């Protein structure tokens, strides 16, 4: 394995085929505090995330939320492997939402990668948060868990614990540590054949100070990492026992149904509840600044009663705004040219003036909702000067602090109860506070737990959306047909620095962003602005290739001479997809590639039109270079997931604004890919041995462009806006093959 | 009084006849394995069996299932095993879901498993077209390719 740049910066020496890590980077070790405050019996924390019992059973605490990405399995795999434990001896628990389990490595990881953790931004003012606040994170997002927490915290914690256990054994036997070895949750003295279990050593080891440096394994020494290990969360997800935030229950619990201001930012003016309070089970009508809620003894009773409550919200400038107005505003901003430079290479203006040929393409994508399967919900119980909260979140510590603040309590007086997440995709990241704030304000009025649940309609209409974006392109060719300039102006905000960049060797580039703010609240949506930007850039690159008379795959390969990892994934995906070979009549292949969150993904989509001229995606062949694979089956599952998520957006995804509010209500008008639309997916993991890349997001960005690029070959129609359901492919003419 | 059997146990609930079965299960009986997804029978997260057939419980009022046999995800294995006390803890569909590592976030999978179990009970060897037309549940994590593989593995078993 090559040593990544990030890891290299932390390394001080290479010993015994492994990598010596400055474990002191993790100090002060919190395991002493954990032993003092959390331990009730014989068990001991040996480093922060690892607890060992006398019977040799080991618990590994995972400081990230499990939302299906398999992190409750892959992170313990990393710790257990470095610990040299047997996988059978490991059990996994969610780390409590207390700061001794915070994952500061996440911040360091992003600081090394992009300067600020932009992909965690719910709203763009995130940069105002101080770094001190950021260090107290338990956030799950940015495809970060394995590559930052796993690489920098879990592996080092495992390796440090192993060294501490070896030291104890060597002391007990009166031998040197280098005469000892570890395997299967035991330390052996090789010469004498003596052996001690970790459980027999843990009490002593816990008294040691963690070593200043630890040695990580070389991949050839891995015993657990790299194997397809069954996910620990799956059994509970097939028998109904897995608990999500919405499943919180307790005796005497009340339920709130809530109606939020339909036009974002407006306030509640008046409520006419009629005789709703006399309905069975209804406890109270609650008026909040921007909403009205009914609290009852069942969610259904609350929801039915709320239907009968009349409410009026104040007017706003946005009351007559439609999506068309917003996109007109985007074009005005783009035409005014009042922009901020994103990237300037060479002199794109001069190249445009000298051009023999110029092509233009103006692209748009709409707002998108997250539509996680578990509707947003939050249960809060304020009693005895404490606030307990149950909710599915990507940010446990942030939620705890938020609830405490709204409840008027100190952070230490809030207790967070973890659960599985019924989908995250960015909806459950910090700053998307609406349900949390409302649930807390409602619960303040009761001394029993109150569970606030958004209906699917409110979940869809009160989201923080993937931003709608308009992006205008120009490209200049010289007299030899070589592309000389790339000119791109798009509407912001920039959520992930670099998402609009292209890897291609175009000598003159000018990329700039203009203001794209509207009254619609926005947030991170799976892969953040990579999903919009990759549709734009990989479609327009395709336009350039066709204009240059080049095969889109060959053109990319030629323009990526300095990007061997991009070339490799393109090559693997193209070959596996049968690119250039004969296809069934009426089928075509489209290709796209994008690097995001440290992974490089190429996708080839095989498309056709059905009898109603609607696009059909038969197969997606994907090659991903994520450095290496901790749990290969999870890698494949995440890639499949990202592709399906991207396909829903490409085919159907569209949130429109009418009269200032979201027009879509529920799944029938915010349509989803289901079994009948789901393509065959063929995933190829390219192990480059580079630093670990993210997995939760990187397969989403290339999908829409790959499909649209295939449809161009099939129909001659260049798709410059999504979703595809809005396009009429009935009068299509396949282009001549290039 | 709403009277019906859930996983073989008779339940008598003093609730409104129009209360959907979903909320009777979740809020009245505390059985949270059955999930709320859309409330309009679109996504299938709330799928249970009524007398062995898949039904979307979010739009099924308890008055419509009076005296009938309801099976939920919590009781699926037991019902599948019949009276056999040495039967495994999981039904064949549930085991296939583990073998193929189908669930991701898992929220839709109770409903997905109930829908597939119902399909296989009437059509033990479904074609891809059969699967496409009968399994219309929404999974935002995109477990569909694995759902298909798991169903085919059960058919060929």
Account of the 3D structure:
The complex is a heterodimer of chains A (738) and B (157). With 738 residues, chain A is an alpha+beta fold. Helix content of chain A is 29%, strand content 22%. Chain A has a seven-stranded mixed beta sheet. Chain B has 157 residues and is of the alpha+beta class. Chain B has two domains: 75 residues, Beta-grasp domain (Ubiquitin-like (UB roll)); 75 residues, Orthogonal Bundle (DNA polymerase, domain 1), CATH 1.10.150.120. Chain B has six helices and five strands. In chain B, a hairpin with a 2-residue loop joins strand 3 and strand 4. In chain B, helix 3 crosses helix 6. The longest helix of chain B is centred in the C-terminal third of the chain and has 14 residues. At the A-B interface, helix 8 and helix 18 of A face helix 1, helix 3, helix 4, helix 5 and helix 6 of B.
User: How large a portion of the residues of chain A is in β-strands, by DSSP E?
Assistant: 15-25%
Which stretches of chain B of 5+ consecutive residues score pLDDT under 50? Answer: none
CATH superfamily of the largest domain in chain A: Aldehyde oxidase/xanthine dehydrogenase, molybdopterin binding domain
Number of helices of chain A: 19
Helix content of chain B: 25-40%
Class computed from helices, strands and strand pairing of chain A: alpha+beta
- Please state how the strands of the largest beta sheet of chain B are arranged side by side: 2-1-5-3-4
Low-confidence stretches of chain A: 1-28, 110-136
> Which structural class do the helices and strands of chain B define?
alpha+beta
The ordered H/E elements of chain B are: EEHEEEHHHHH
Number of domains of chain A: 3
Under the CATH scheme, the architecture of the largest domain in chain B is Roll
């Amino acid at each position: 394995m090559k040593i990544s740049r990030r890891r290299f910066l932390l390394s001080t020496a290479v010993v015994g085929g492994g990598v010596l890590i400055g474990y002191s980077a993790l100090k002060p070790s919190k395991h002493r505090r954990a032993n003092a405050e959390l331990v009730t019996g014989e068990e001991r924390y040996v480093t922060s995330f690892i607890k060992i019992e006398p019977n040799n059973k080991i618990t590994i605490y995972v400081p990230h939320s499990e939302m299906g990405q398999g992190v409750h399995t892959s992170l313990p795999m990393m710790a257990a492997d470095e610990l040299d434990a047997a996988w059978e001896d490991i059990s996994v628990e969610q780390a409590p939402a207390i700061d001794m389990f915070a994952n500061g490595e996440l911040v360091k990881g992003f600081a090394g990668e992009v300067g600020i953790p932009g992909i965690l931004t719910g709203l763009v003012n995130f940069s105002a948060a101080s770094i001190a606040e950021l260090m107290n994170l338990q956030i799950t997002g940015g495809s970060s868990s394995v590559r930052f927490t796993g690489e920098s915290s879990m592996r080092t914690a495992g390796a440090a614990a192993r060294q501490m256990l070896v030291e104890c054994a060597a002391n007990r036997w009166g031998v040197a540590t280098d005469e000892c070895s570890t395997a299967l949750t035991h330390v052996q003295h090789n010469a004498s054949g003596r052996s001690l279990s970790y459980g027999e050593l843990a009490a002593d080891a816990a008294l040691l100070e963690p070593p200043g440096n630890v040695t990580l394994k070389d991949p050839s020494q891995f015993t657990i990492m790299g194997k397809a290990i069954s996910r620990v969360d799956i059994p509970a997800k097939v028998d109904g026992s897995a608990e999500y935030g919405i499943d919180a229950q307790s005796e005497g619990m009340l339920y709130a149904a809530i109606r939020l201001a339909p036009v974002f930012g407006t306030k509640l003016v008046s409520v006419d509840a009629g005789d709703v309070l006399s309905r069975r089970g209804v406890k109270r009508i609650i008026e909040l600044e921007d909403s009205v809620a009914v609290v009852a003894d069942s969610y259904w009773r609350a929801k039915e009663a709320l239907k009968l409550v009349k409410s009026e919200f104040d007017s706003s400038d946005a009351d007559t705004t439609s999506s068309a107005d917003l996109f007109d505003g985007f074009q005005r901003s783009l035409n005014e040219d009042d922009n901020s430079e994103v990237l300037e290479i060479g002199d794109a203006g001069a190249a445009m003036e000298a051009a023999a040929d110029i092509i233009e393409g103006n692209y748009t994508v709409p707002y998108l909702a997250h539509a996680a399967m578990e509707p947003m919900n939050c249960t809060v119980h304020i009693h005895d000067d404490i606030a307990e909260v149950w909710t599915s979140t990507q940010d446990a510590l942030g939620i705890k602090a938020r609830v405490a603040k709204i409840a008027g309590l100190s952070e230490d007086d809030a207790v967070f109860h973890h659960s599985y997440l019924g989908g995250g995709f960015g909806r459950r990241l910090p700053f998307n506070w609406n349900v949390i704030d409302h649930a807390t304000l409602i619960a303040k009025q009761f001394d029993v737990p109150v569970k606030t649940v958004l209906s699917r309609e409110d979940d869809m209409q009160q989201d923080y959306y993937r931003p709608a974006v308009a992006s205008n392109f120009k490209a200049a060719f010289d007299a030899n047909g070589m592309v000389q300039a790339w000119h791109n102006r798009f509407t912001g905000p920039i959520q992930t620095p670099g998402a609009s960049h292209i890897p291609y060797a175009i000598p003159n580039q000018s990329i700039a962003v203009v203001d794209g703010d509207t009254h619609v609240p926005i947030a991170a949506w799976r892969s953040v602005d990579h999903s919009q930007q990759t549709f734009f850039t990989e479609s327009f690159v395709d336009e350039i290739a066709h204009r240059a008379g080049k095969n889109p795959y060959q053109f990319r390969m030629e323009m990526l001479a300095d990007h061997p990892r991009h070339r490799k994934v393109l090559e693997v995906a193209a070959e596996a997809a049968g690119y250039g070979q004969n296809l069934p009549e009426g089928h075509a292949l489209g290709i796209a590639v994008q690097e995001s969150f440290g992974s490089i993904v190429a996708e080839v989509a095989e498309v056709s039109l059905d009898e109603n001229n609607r696009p059909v995606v038969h197969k997606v062949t994907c090659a991903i270079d994520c450095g290496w694979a901790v749990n290969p089956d999870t890698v494949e599952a995440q890639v499949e997931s990202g592709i399906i998520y991207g396909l829903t957006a490409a085919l159907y995804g569209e949130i429109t604004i009418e009269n200032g509010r979201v027009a879509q209500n529920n799944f029938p008008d915010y349509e989803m890919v289901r079994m009948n639309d789901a393509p065959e997916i063929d995933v190829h993991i390219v192990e480059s041995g580079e630093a670990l890349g993210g997995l939760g997001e990187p397969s989403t960005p290339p999908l829409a462009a790959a499909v649209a690029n295939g449809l161009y070959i099939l129909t001659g129609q260049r798709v410059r806006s999504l979703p595809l359901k809005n396009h009429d492919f009935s009068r299509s003419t396949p282009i001549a093959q290039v | 009084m709403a009277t019906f059997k859930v996983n073989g146990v008779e339940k008598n609930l003093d609730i409104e006849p129009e209360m959907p079965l979903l909320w009777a299960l979740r809020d009245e009986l505390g059985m949270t394995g059955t999930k709320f997804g859309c409330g309009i029978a679109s996504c299938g997260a709330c799928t249970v069996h009524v007398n062995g057939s898949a039904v979307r419980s979010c739009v099924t009022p308890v008055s419509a299932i009076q005296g009938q046999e309801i099976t939920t995800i919590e009781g699926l294995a037991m019902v599948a095993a019949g009276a056999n006390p040495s039967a495994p803890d999981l039904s064949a569909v549930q085991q296939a879901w583990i073998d193929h590592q189908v669930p991701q976030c898992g929220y839709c999978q109770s409903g997905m498993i109930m829908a597939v179990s119902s399909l296989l009970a009437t059509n033990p060897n479904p074609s891809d077209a059969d699967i496409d037309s009968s399994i219309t549940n929404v999974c935002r994590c995109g477990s569909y390719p694995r759902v298909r593989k798991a169903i085919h593995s059960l058919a060929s078993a």
